[in-house]
Here is the input.
Amino acid sequence: MSDSSKGIDVAHIATLARLRIEPGSVQKLQSEMESIVGYVEMLSELDVTGIEPTAHAVPRSNVLRDDVRGTPLGRDAMLANAPDTVDGELIKVPQVLPGEEMS
Here is the structure.
């Protein structure tokens, strides 16, 4: 491990991240963080000449159907499919926020 990974101030990092760390855990966390930094430094030494940068290990694509224009559902048909309505004009849904119940 190089000198740049020495002297990691775990308490300071915990303060910046607003984490509460038990005093007995500081030494263990410092050792683990130094190991992680050492590993990252080792990765930076790899020769990646000619390797294209990637964001994902496998190609990603969306599998979507083409948009198909259709006839919209009429108001009466839509309201007929609703489990509950208010005066046959509005779809009634369960209350999600506390407060007065509406009719």
In short: DSSP finds three helices and two strands in the chain. Confidence is low (pLDDT under 50) at residues 1-5. Helices lie at 10-16, 26-44, 75-81.
